[in-house]
Design brief:
The complex is a heterodimer of chains A (567) and B (1060).
Chain A lengths: L1 H25 L14 H26 L10 H4 L6 H24 L3 H22 L2 E2 L15 E2 L1 H20 L20 H21 L7 H11 L10 E4 L12 H7 L9 E2 H8 L9 H4 E2 L43 E2 L16 E2 L37 E5 L1 H14 L6 H22 L12 H17 L3 H15 L4 H11 L24 H6 L24
Parallel strand pairs in A: 4-6
Antiparallel strand pairs in A: 1-2, 3-8, 5-7
Helix pairs in contact in A: 2-4, 2-5, 2-16, 4-5, 5-6, 5-7, 6-7, 7-8, 12-13, 12-15, 13-14, 13-15, 14-15
Chain B lengths: L1 H17 L4 E9 L10 E4 L5 E3 L5 E7 L2 E6 L6 E5 L3 E2 L2 E2 L10 E3 L5 E3 L7 E5 L22 E5 L8 E5 L12 E4 L2 E3 L27 E7 L2 H4 L10 E6 L10 E16 L12 E2 L2 E2 L17 E4 L5 H4 L9 E4 L13 E13 L3 E13 L6 E14 L4 E16 L54 H7 E19 L4 E20 L10 E23 L4 E26 L10 E5 L10 E18 L3 E12 L8 E11 L1 H4 L1 H4 L4 E15 L10 E9 L5 E7 L2 E2 L7 E14 L4 E12 L2 E6 L8 E6 L1 E17 L3 E17 L8 E5 L4 E4 L7 E7 L1 E2 L5 E4 L7 E10 L4 E11 L2 E11 L2 E4 H8 L19 E2 L11 H10 L7 E3 L2 E12 L2 H4 L6 E14 L25 E2 L6 E11 L1
Parallel strand pairs in B: 1-7, 1-8, 14-17, 38-42, 49-54, 53-58
Antiparallel strand pairs in B: 1-4, 2-3, 2-5, 5-6, 9-10, 11-16, 12-13, 14-15, 16-17, 18-23, 18-59, 19-20, 21-22, 23-24, 24-25, 25-26, 26-27, 27-28, 28-29, 29-30, 30-31, 30-32, 32-33, 33-34, 34-35, 35-39, 36-37, 39-40, 40-43, 41-42, 43-44, 44-51, 45-46, 46-47, 47-50, 48-49, 51-52, 52-56, 53-55, 56-57, ...
Helix pairs in contact in B: 7-8
The chains are: A mainly alpha (567), B mainly beta (1060).
C-alpha cells in the first residue's frame, strides 16, 4: 500500500513536471506576431518600397533645405544639422529599406521570383548611392544582413559602395530579363499599386540604366572615365527621356488609417493655425523675381494666401512678418530676395532661425505640384488693394494630397545630358537639351492637375506664348553666357527650379558645380562652412564600436573634389 | 544544573505529548506602563499558531494547552513572555519600546517570524503613519518613512503614477520596481502606460487601488535575504501590505467594533513661479498680444497701451462681435496663471467593522475617496470594499481569506511632455500654460468658439491651444475594476508539522480612454482612444512547515514549499479620429477607426508568463539570542529557452543578540537591547518575455494608393533575437545593528549593504546598420552599496507628555561596470540624444546631452559664434548625475494627553536634474529673474572663437530665448537639492473617561497638511521649481528629467474618526 502510494505520488509529480515543461515551452514565443517562416516575398517588397519613399523624402528634404528649395530653419550649418538629426535617415536606410529587401532576397531567389529580386536591387542601389552622397563612407558589405547580422559593421569607401551599387543595377537589368514565376503583386512606382506587367518591368530597366547615368555624372569630377561611360549609356539609348518613364512615388488621398497623402500637403493644408511650413524665399524669387518673365510653374508650385506686396497697407501684419520694410543684411547681394518675395510669396530666408510668430494664415502653402495641393488663383496685385484667400483646414482643397515624389523625371535627364555635353565631351547640343529640360518640366507641372482630376482656373493657366517667353528668356541667357561654366550655370539654374521636390539631386548638383551661383546667403554673415557631407548619426557613432565621427561637416564625399564654391 | 534542566526538558516534552488534548482557558488584561488598556495586542501561545488579540479594553481570552506559555506583543511595546501553566487570569503590563524590534513580521507565504530572528533589515510603517492622510496613494505616504526607500511622484496630478525604488537602481534597462504583496499574495503594481513618456499622459499606478486607511501595516523588505522567499519577483524589494481585512485574528470574545472616519482636504497647486509684471508678450523689439514669448521690450505703461484685441479677427468676428474693432489694454494680468488652477476638495469616507466569536472573526471595510486635483478636470474617485475572515474549522483545519473589490476612476487633462513650445508629441494642459505671457488675460478671454467648440486664444492662427480649452475638452481616463483576495487553508498534520495551501488572485480590468475634442491646435480633428486591459494573476503556494523545539535551547524551523505564479495580461484598443459632432465620444461619432494609437503603437496584445518555484528555508535558533537562517529557491521561467530557464539562488543569514546572551548586559541601563545581524543572499531575475526568438512584424492597411489599392507589408522584427539569454543572478551582502540605548530612549537601526547585479539582462540598442535596432543581452554589472539608518530619540517620556524624534537616513552609491566591448553607454530613459544614460565605471543615471563649447585656454569660458551666441560642441557629453548624495527625513512626534503633534521634514542633497520648466520660464522671459531693462543690448559672458572676450551685442531675447531654449542641453541642468516640510498634523483624541458613558469607543480629530513648504535653492530663484517630479514615468531610472510635467500639490484639511 505504501509503495503504491509512493508510485502514485511520484507519477503524479512526473506528470505535473511534464505538463509544466510543456506550458513553459508554449509561453516562450510571442503570441502577438507571426514567426519568421510566415514571411511573404511580396509583403517584404511592399515594406521596402514604402520605406524607400520615406528615405527619399527624408534625404530629399535635407538637400532641399541646404539648396534653398525649401526653408532651412537652423541658425548656421553646424547647429542646424547635428549628428542626432540623421538617426531617422540611418534607420530608414538600413533597417526599413535594406534589411527588409535583404531579408526578402533569399526567399525570392529560392522561389525564382527574379523581378522581385531585381526591383530590390534597384532600390538598394539608389539607397546606397544616396547614402554615400550624404554621408560619404558608409557601412555596406557588412551592413543590414539579417541572416548573419554584424553588430558593428565597418564602413566601406564611398567609391566602393558606388561600384557595388552600379553592379547591383547591372544585376537587376539581368534579372529583369529573366522570366519571373509570378508578377510583383504591388508595384508602387511604375504601376500605381497594381501588379507588375511587361510594360512596367521595361520601365524599371530604363530606370536602372538612368540611375547608372546619374551615378556616372555625379562622379565625373573624380572619374576620368565618366564621360566615356555616359557616352556609352546615351548611345545605348534606353534612358528616362519621356514623362511616361518618370520614376515617381504617387500618393493617395486618404487622410489617415492609413495616412497616404503627400506629407507636405498635410503640413500646408492640415496643420493647426494655418500653413505649417515655410517656402524658400530664394526659390520664389528665382521664379517670380529673377527673370523678367514670371515662371509659368509658379502658381502650381506655390499657393499664396495673399497677394500683398512688402509693406503694403492691408497686407501682412508686422507681427507676422516683422522684417517688412527693412533693408537686407549687408552681405546680401543687391537684388537678392530678402524677407518676402512680391507679390505675396511669404516664405523665409535661408537659415532664418527666429521664433515662430502667428503667421500660419500668411505663409505661402505648397501648391498642386508636387504635393497635390491647391492651385493659386489669386488675381494680380495692381497696387490698389490686397486680395487674400486663406487656406482652409476643414475641407480638402486641391488635389487632396495625391502628390508625387519626383525621384527621377525625364527633364532631369535632359539637364544632366546638357551638363555632359558641356563638361564631359558628350556629343550633342546642350542648348537643345536645356530647352527640352525646361519644356518637359513645364509640361509635367502644368499637366499635373489633370492627373488629379483638377481643372485650374483657366484665367491663370499659362498660355503657350507665356511659356515660350519664358523659354526664350532662358535660352537668351544661355546664349549670352560667355563661358562653358556660365552656360552650365544657366542649365543648373533651370535644373534647380525643376528639382522642386527633389533635394537629393539639387544637393549633389550644388556640391559638384557650385551652381546656381547666386544662391541666397544665410541670414547670418557667419554661418560656418557649408555642409559638404553630413555628420554620421548619433545612433551610429554611439552604438557602433567601429564608427568614427567626422571632425566636422566639411569632409567631402569621394566624388567631390572641392572645386565648387558653396556657401 | 545543566543536567537537571535537560531532564526537566525531557519530562516537559513528554508532558506535552500526554497533554496534547488538554486545554485550559486563559484570560487577562494587557496594559501599558501607565495602566491604560492596550488594544489589539497580540497574545499567542508560544510554539503554536494559536493566538488572539486584545479588545479595546485590553482584554483577551482564549484557550491554550495546559502548561503553555504566552507571548504578548504589541507595536510600540516590549514583548512579554509569561507562563499560563494552569490557565486563569493573567494580567500583563507592557513596557514601552521605542521601536518595533520585537514585533512579529510576516514573511513569505504568511510565515510569521520574530523580528529579532531575522538576519536582515525590515522597515515597518504602521497604520498610524498611513491613515487619515491627505494623499490617497498609500505608497506616496511611505516617503521618508522607511530608510532605503525612494519614492518619486510623476506629477502633482491627483491619481498620477508613483515611482518606488528600494536600494537604488538595480537594473539598467529593466524595471527596478519592487514586488507588492498584499495579504500574502502578489498584487500587481504596474503602471500600464499606453504611450511612451513623450506622449506622457498621466497613467496611474495600480497600487493606487490600496486604500491607506484600510492598511494595518506596511513592511518594506529591502535586501535579498528578506525577499528570496518571494522568489525572483521580489528581487527589487518587497512591499508587504497587510490590510485590516487580511489581519483578522480570532479571539475568544471579540467585541464588535465600528470605526467611521471622514476626512476633508483642500488640494492646491504648491508651486507657481514668481512672475514679473513689468514686461509682457513680445519678441526682440516688438510687443503685442500675438507673441508666444514674454520678451516685450518696453515696460507696461500707465495708462496701458491700447492694442487691437487678439480676438478681433475675421474668423472670430462672427462669433465674438463684442471684440470686433475693439482695443484692449496691453497690461499685466498678475494672476492669469494662478487663476487657471482651482482649490480641489478631497473627501475620504471610511467605515470599518470588525467582530467575531469563539471560532471565527471577520473584518469588513468600505471607503470612498473623492479627490479633486488642483487642475480643472482632474478627479479621482475610488471605492474600496473588502472583507476578511478567519475561521477554525475543526481542530486541525484553519481557514482564512480576504476579498477586496476596488472601483477607481481617474480623470485628468493630458500632460504630454514638452520642451517649452506646445506639447512635444501629444496634448498637454501644461504645455503652454506656465509661460503664458503676462499680458494674456487667460481667465478673462473666452477659450472656446461658441459656434464650433474649437479653441480660441491670443495667437491669430490659433496655433496653440488655450489651456482652459484643454482642461475642458481633452481628457485621459483610467477606470479600473479590480478584485483581489486569497484563501488559505492550514492543516495541522502533526503537532509540529502543518501544511498550508494558499491561493491568491488579483484580477482587474483597466479601461483607459483618451478623449480629445476637435478644435485644438494639436490633433485638430479630435480623437478617441479606448483601451481595455485585463490582467489576472494566479498565485498558488503550498508550504509544509516544521516547527520543533529540539531542546530547551535549540529550536528548528523548516519551511518547504512550491509556488506557481501565472501572470496574464491582454488588452484591446481602438483609436478613432476625425470627430463628427463636437463633444460626443462614441466611436461611431468618428470618421476613421484605427487599430493603432496616435503614436502608431499596437493596442492589441497579450502576454502571459509562468514562473514556477520550489523552496526550502530553515531557521535554527539557540536560546533567544542566536538565530541562523539558511535556504534557497529554484525558479523555472517561461521567458527563456529550455536550457536557460532555471536558476537556483541560495541565501544565508543570522542574528545575534548580545543583550540576551550575556548576563552582564541583560539589565544594562545604557545598552538596553543590541542585535547584530549579517546575511549573504542571492536572487534571480528573468527580464522581459519574448526576447529569444526572431519575429515577423506585420503591417496591414499601411498605404492606400490613388488607385485605391491597399498595401500591406511584413517586416523582419527590429529586435535581434538572442536564444542564449540567461536569467540574472544578483548577490547581496548585508550587515546591520539594531539597538536601544539609554533607558530605551535612543533607538538605532543601521544597515550596510552591497548588492551586485552582474550579467544584466539589458536592452542594448544597436546601430541600425546592423539590420536591427535592439537586442536583449546579458552584460554589465550594477553595484549598489549604501547605508540605511533609522535613528530615534525620545526626548521626553512621562505619563502626560511624550516627545520623540525619528530620523531616517538613506545613502546609496551605485556604479555600472564590466560593459562588454561595443557598448560605450546605454540609454536608460529619455531620448538617445538627451536622456539618462549609464556609462562604464560611473554612477547609473548620467544625464547625457549637448554641451556648450568652451575654450580650455581661456579658463573654460563659453565660446560664442560670429553672431554672439553660445556654440555647441558637435558631440554629446555628460551634463549631470541624477543620483542624490543622500536623503534624510526627520519625523517629530509630540503627544500631550490627547493631543498629538507631528511633523515630517525631508531633505535630499545633490543629484542633478534636466528641467524644462525653470529653463522655459527664463527663456521666455516670465519670472522676476528676467525683470531687467530689456531695451539694452546684451553681451553674453564668454570668449569669441579667436579667444578674445566677447563683445558682440545681442538683444535680451536673443540672450535668453536663443541661448536657452535653443542652446545646449547643459543649460537646463540644475542641482536638485531640496528641503521639504512633508507633513504636519495635529490630532486630538477625546479621553476615555469622557466617552465611558456614551456608546462611543473613541473620537479623534486630526488637522493635517502635506507638502506645506519646500525650497530647492539651486534652481533659478523665482521659478519655485519642485524637483520632486519626473516626466519619465514609472519603472526604471526615472529621476532627473522634467519636461513641463506640471506643478506639485499641497493638501490641507481635517479628519474625524469615531469608533463605536
Amino acid at each position: 500500500m505504501k509503495k503504491f502510494k509512493l508510485i502514485i505520488t511520484l507519477s503524479a509529480l512526473l506528470l505535473l513536471a511534464g505538463s509544466c515543461k510543456k506550458k513553459l515551452d508554449e509561453l516562450i514565443s510571442n503570441p502577438n506576431v507571426p514567426t519568421l517562416d510566415k514571411a511573404d516575398v511580396d509583403l517584404y517588397l511592399n515594406a521596402g518600397q514604402l520605406s524607400f519613399k520615406d528615405l527619399f523624402n527624408n534625404t530629399s528634404n535635407i538637400g532641399m533645405q541646404l539648396t534653398r528649395l525649401r526653408n532651412f530653419g537652423g541658425a548656421n550649418y553646424l547647429q542646424g544639422y547635428r549628428p542626432e538629426s540623421f538617426n531617422g535617415t540611418w534607420t530608414l536606410a538600413y533597417r526599413s529599406v535594406l534589411t527588409q529587401l535583404n531579408a526578402m532576397e533569399p526567399l525570392a531567389t529560392a522561389q525564382s521570383r527574379w523581378h522581385h529580386v531585381a526591383i530590390a536591387q534597384v532600390l538598394k542601389a539608389y539607397t546606397g548611392i544616396t547614402m554615400v552622397d550624404y554621408f560619404g563612407d558608409i557601412p555596406w558589405t557588412e551592413a543590414a544582413n539579417p541572416e548573419n547580422s554584424v553588430i558593428n559593421p565597418k564602413v566601406d569607401k564611398g567609391a566602393d559602395v558606388y561600384a557595388a551599387c552600379i553592379k547591383l543595377l547591372d544585376d537587376a537589368i539581368v534579372n529583369f530579363a529573366k522570366s519571373a514565376g509570378s508578377p510583383v503583386a504591388v508595384d508602387l512606382y511604375y504601376n500605381n499599386g497594381a501588379s507588375s506587367n511587361p510594360a512596367s518591368i521595361t520601365k524599371w530597366v530604363t530606370l536602372a540604366k538612368t540611375l547608372k547615368l546619374k551615378a556616372y555624372m555625379t562622379t565625373r569630377l573624380t572619374d576620368a572615365t565618366a564621360g566615356a561611360k555616359i557616352a556609352a549609356l546615351v548611345a545605348a539609348g534606353d534612358l528616362i527621356d519621356t514623362p511616361a518613364e518618370d520614376f515617381v512615388f504617387r500618393f493617395g488621398t486618404q487622410l489617415e488609417n492609413p495616412a497616404s497623402r503627400h506629407p507636405d500637403y498635410d503640413a500646408s493644408y492640415r496643420a493647426a493655425g494655418g500653413v505649417g511650413n515655410y517656402i524658400s524665399n530664394y526659390l520664389a524669387w528665382e521664379m517670380a523675381g529673377e527673370k523678367t518673365v514670371i515662371d509659368p510653374r509658379i502658381r502650381y508650385y506655390f499657393r499664396r494666401q495673399s497677394n500683398a506686396k512688402n509693406g503694403q497697407a492691408g497686407g501682412f501684419a508686422l507681427i507676422a512678418l516683422s522684417c517688412q520694410g527693412q533693408l537686407a543684411p549687408g552681405h546680401y547681394p543687391v537684388g537678392m530676395a530678402y524677407c518676402m518675395v512680391n507679390d505675396g510669396y511669404f516664405g523665409r530666408d535661408h537659415a532664418d532661425a527666429s521664433g515662430i510668430p502667428p503667421d500660419g494664415q500668411s505663409r505661402t502653402a505648397w501648391g498642386t505640384y508636387p504635393a497635390g495641393g491647391d492651385f493659386d488663383a489669386l488675381p494680380a496685385n495692381t497696387g490698389a488693394s490686397v486680395t487674400t484667400s486663406t487656406v482652409t483646414q476643414t475641407i480638402n482643397p486641391g488635389g487632396k494630397g495625391a502628390g508625387i515624389y519626383p525621384i527621377w523625371l525625364s527633364s532631369f535627364t535632359q539637364f544632366l545630358l546638357a551638363e555632359a555635353v558641356l563638361k564631359t565631351g558628350l556629343t550633342g547640343n546642350a542648348r537643345t537639351l536645356l530647352e527640352n529640360g525646361v519644356r518637359q518640366s513645364i509640361t509635367k507641372v502644368l499637366g499635373f492637375p489633370a492627373t488629379l482630376g483638377l481643372t485650374p482656373n483657366p484665367a491663370f493657366v499659362p498660355t503657350s506664348s507665356q511659356i515660350d517667353n519664358y523659354v526664350n528668356e532662358v535660352l537668351n541667357n544661355y546664349d549670352l553666357a560667355a563661358t562653358t561654366d556660365t552656360k552650365l550655370n544657366v542649365v543648373m539654374k533651370e535644373y534647380h527650379i525643376a528639382l522642386f521636390g527633389n533635394g537629393i539631386e539639387a544637393y549633389n548638383n550644388y556640391r559638384r558645380t557650385g551652381m546656381p551661383y547666386n544662391m541666397q546667403p544665410t541670414l547670418s554673415p557667419a554661418p560656418g562652412p557649408f555642409i559638404r557631407s553630413v555628420f554620421y548619426p548619433a545612433d551610429h557613432v554611439t552604438l557602433n564600436t567601429n564608427a568614427v565621427q567626422k571632425p566636422d561637416n566639411t569632409i567631402k564625399v569621394f566624388w567631390d573634389n572641392g572645386s565648387a564654391i558653396v556657401f | 544544573m545543566r543536567k537537571k534542566l535537560s531532564i526537566l526538558t525531557g519530562m516537559l516534552l513528554l508532558c506535552f505529548q500526554l497533554a496534547i488534548a488538554q486545554t485550559v482557558d486563559v484570560s487577562g488584561k494587557v496594559t501599558d506602563e501607565n495602566g491604560n488598556a492596550v488594544a489589539n495586542a497580540s497574545v499567542t501561545e508560544r510554539g503554536t499558531q494559536n493566538g488572539t488579540t486584545t479588545d479595546a479594553s485590553g482584554i483577551f481570552k482564549f484557550s491554550v494547552r495546559r502548561n503553555a506559555s504566552l507571548e504578548i506583543s504589541s507595536i510600540g511595546f516590549e514583548t512579554v513572555r509569561i507562563s499560563a501553566a494552569s490557565g486563569g487570569t493573567v494580567n500583563v503590563k507592557l513596557a514601552n519600546a521605542n521601536s518595533n524590534l520585537t514585533e512579529v513580521v510576516v514573511t513569505a507565504s504568511g510565515i510569521r517570524r520574530e523580528k529579532k530572528a531575522l538576519g536582515y533589515a525590515v522597515a515597518t510603517v504602521d497604520k498610524k503613519q498611513l491613515e487619515l492622510r491627505p494623499d490617497g496613494d498609500a505608497i506616496r505616504l511611505l516617503q521618508g518613512k522607511a530608510p532605503g526607500v525612494n519614492i518619486l511622484n510623476t506629477s502633482g496630478i491627483s491619481g498620477s503614477g508613483t515611482n518606488i525604488q528600494i536600494r537604488g537602481v538595480s537594473s539598467l534597462t529593466g524595471s527596478s520596481s519592487p514586488l507588492f504583496i498584499v495579504d500574502g499574495v502578489p498584487f500587481d503594481g504596474s503602471t500600464n502606460s499606453q504611450q511612451g513618456f513623450t506622449q506622457g499622459n498621466q497613467t496611474g499606478s495600480r497600487f493606487f487601488d490600496l486604500d491607506p486607511n484600510n492598511i494595518e501595516s506596511i513592511s518594506v523588505l529591502k535586501g535579498l535575504s528578506a525577499t528570496t522567499l518571494y522568489g525572483s519577483l521580489g528581487r527589487n524589494g518587497v512591499v508587504l501590505v497587510t490590510t485590516k481585512n487580511g489581519a483578522v485574528q480570532r479571539s475568544a470574545k471579540k467585541k464588535t467594533e465600528i470605526t467611521v472616519n471622514q476626512s476633508l482636504f483642500v488640494n492646491q497647486v504648491a508651486n507657481l513661479p514668481e512672475y514679473q509684471n513689468t514686461y509682457g508678450g513680445g519678441f526682440h523689439r516688438s510687443i503685442g498680444f500675438g507673441f508666444f514669448s514674454n520678451w516685450g521690450s518696453v515696460p507696461f505703461t500707465s495708462p496701458a497701451l491700447q492694442l487691437k484685441h487678439p480676438y478681433d479677427r475675421p474668423g472670430l468676428n462672427g462669433v465674438f462681435p463684442e471684440f470686433k474693432g475693439q482695443l484692449t489694454p496691453y497690461q499685466a494680468y498678475p494672476n492669469n496663471v494662478k487663476d487657471f488652477f482651482r482649490n480641489g476638495l478631497i473627501s475620504n469616507t471610511g467605515i470599518n467593522i470588525s467582530g467575531g466569536g469563539a471560532g471565527a472573526a471577520f473584518n469588513a471595510s468600505y471607503s470612498r475617496l473623492n479627490d479633486e486635483g488642483f487642475t480643472p478636470g482632474n478627479t479621482v474617485v475610488r471605492n474600496n470594499f473588502g472583507i476578511g475572515g478567519n475561521v477554525k474549522l475543526t481542530n486541525k483545519f484553519t481557514l482564512n481569506g480576504s476579498l477586496n473589490y476596488v472601483v477607481s476612476d481617474f480623470k485628468t487633462p493630458p500632460t504630454a511632455s514638452s520642451f517649452g513650445s506646445g506639447a512635444d508629441n501629444g496634448v498637454s494642459v501644461f504645455g503652454d500654460l506656465i509661460y503664458t505671457p503676462r499680458s494674456a488675460d487667460l481667465a478673462g478671454w473666452p477659450f472656446q468658439n461658441p459656434a464650433t467648440g474649437a479653441s480660441v486664444y491670443y495667437r491669430g492662427g490659433d496655433d496653440i491651444t488655450n489651456p482652459r480649452w484643454t482642461a475642458a475638452n481633452s481628457r485621459v481616463e483610467q477606470i479600473t475594476n479590480r478584485a483581489f483576495g486569497s484563501l488559505q487553508l492550514r492543516y495541522e498534520l502533526l503537532q509540529n508539522l502543518s501544511i498550508t495551501y494558499k491561493i491568491g488572485f488579483d484580477s482587474y480590468n483597466e479601461q483607459q480612454n483618451y478623449k480629445h475634442n476637435k478644435g485644438a491646435a494639436e490633433f485638430p480633428l479630435g480623437f478617441y482612444r479606448a483601451v481595455s486591459g485585463n490582467r489576472i494573476i494566479w498565485d498558488n503556494t503550498v508550504v509544509a512547515s516544521y516547527n520543533k523545539t529540539l531542546t530547551d535551547d535549540w529550536a528548528l524551523n523548516v519551511d518547504l514549499g512550491a509556488n506557481s505564479y501565472r501572470n496574464n495580461y491582454k488588452q484591446f484598443g481602438l483609436f478613432s479620429s476625425q470627430q463628427l459632432v463636437f463633444d460626443l465620444f462614441d466611436h461611431s461619432n468618428f470618421i476613421v477607426q484605427n487599430k493603432t494609437n496616435e503614436g502608431g503603437g499596437d493596442m492589441d496584445f497579450k502576454e502571459e508568463q509562468l514562473l514556477l518555484g520550489g523552496f526550502l528555508f530553515t531557521t535554527v535558533s539557540y536560546k533567544n539570542f542566536f538565530y541562523f537562517n539558511v535556504g534557497g529557491r529554484n525558479d523555472w521561467s517561461s521567458k527563456f529557452e529550455n536550457e536557460n530557464r532555471t536558476k537556483f539562488y541560495p541565501n544565508v543569514s543570522g542574528s545575534f543578540i548580545p543583550t540576551s546572551a550575556f548576563e552582564s548586559l541583560k539589565s544594562n541601563k545604557i545598552i538596553n537591547y543590541l542585535k547584530l545581524r549579517a546575511g549573504y543572499s542571492t536572487s534571480a531575475s528573468f527580464g522581459d518575455a519574448y526576447q529569444t526568438r526572431a519575429t515577423l512584424g506585420i503591417q496591414t492597411n499601411r498605404f492606400v494608393t490613388q488607385g485605391a489599392t491597399i498595401v500591406n507589408s511584413n517586416t523582419l522584427g527590429s529586435r535581434r533575437p538572442n536564444p542564449d539569454l540567461k536569467p540574472e543572478l544578483s548577490k547581496e551582502i548585508e550587515v546591520g545593528v539594531e539597538a536601544r540605548l539609554i533607558n530605551n530612549r535612543v533607538n538605532v537601526d543601521l544597515t550596510l549593504y552591497r548588492r551586485r547585479n552582474p550579467d544584466q539582462i539589458l536592452d542594448r540598442s544597436l546601430d541600425p546598420a546592423s539590420g536591427f535596432t535592439v537586442q536583449s543581452i546579458n552584460a554589465a554589472t550594477v553595484e549598489n552599496k549604501g547605508i540605511e539608518l533609522g535613528l530615534g530619540y525620545t526626548i521626553i517620556r512621562n505619563s502626560n507628555l511624550t516627545w520623540d524624534i525619528n530620523t531616517v537616513f538613506t545613502l546609496n552609491r551605485n556604479r555600472a561596470y564590466d560593459f562588454p566591448d561595443g557598448i560605450e553607454n546605454l540609454v536608460l530613459a529619455g531620448y538617445t540624444d538627451l536622456g539618462i544614460f549609464a556609462f562604464p565605471d560611473k554612477p547609473v543615471g548620467m544625464i547625457y546631452g549637448s554641451t556648450a563649447k568652451r575654450d580650455p585656454s581661456k579658463g573654460n569660458q563659453l565660446v560664442v559664434d560670429g553672431d554672439g551666441n553660445y556654440m555647441e560642441n558637435p558631440g554629446l557629453g555628460i551634463i549631470g548625475d541624477v543620483n542624490p548624495d543622500f536623503q534624510v527625513s526627520g519625523i517629530t512626534n509630540l503627544s500631550y494627553k490627547g493631543f498629538n503633534f507631528r511633523m515630517q521634514w525631508d531633505y535630499s542633497r545633490g543629484g542633478d536634474m534636466y528641467a524644462v520648466t525653470p529653463l522655459i520660464l527664463l527663456a521666455r522671459g516670465l519670472t522676476k529673474d528676467t525683470e531687467f531693462d530689456r531695451d539694452l543690448p546684451y553681451i553674453l559672458p564668454g570668449v569669441k572663437q579667436d579667444g578674445t572676450t566677447n563683445d558682440i551685442q545681442i538683444t535680451a531675447t536673443g540672450a535668453f530665448f536663443r541661448n536657452k531654449l535653443q542652446g545646449p542641453d547643459e543649460f537646463a541642468v540644475w542641482d536638485a537639492t531640496v528641503i521639504r516640510l512633508r507633513e504636519v498634523s495635529l490630532s486630538y483624541a477625546l479621553p476615555e473617561s469622557v466617552l465611558r458613558k456614551t456608546p462611543l469607543g473613541g473620537i479623534s480629530l486630526t488637522i493635517s497638511g502635506q507638502n506645506l513648504w519646500y525650497n530647492a535653492p539651486n534652481f533659478p530663484q523665482y521659478s519655485n521649481f519642485d524637483p520632486e517630479t519626473t516626466t519619465l514615468g514609472v519603472g526604471g531610472v526615472s529621476r532627473g528629467f522634467e519636461l513641463l510635467t506640471g506643478p506639485s500639490s499641497r493638501r490641507m484639511g481635517a479628519s474625524l474618526r469615531i469608533t463605536f
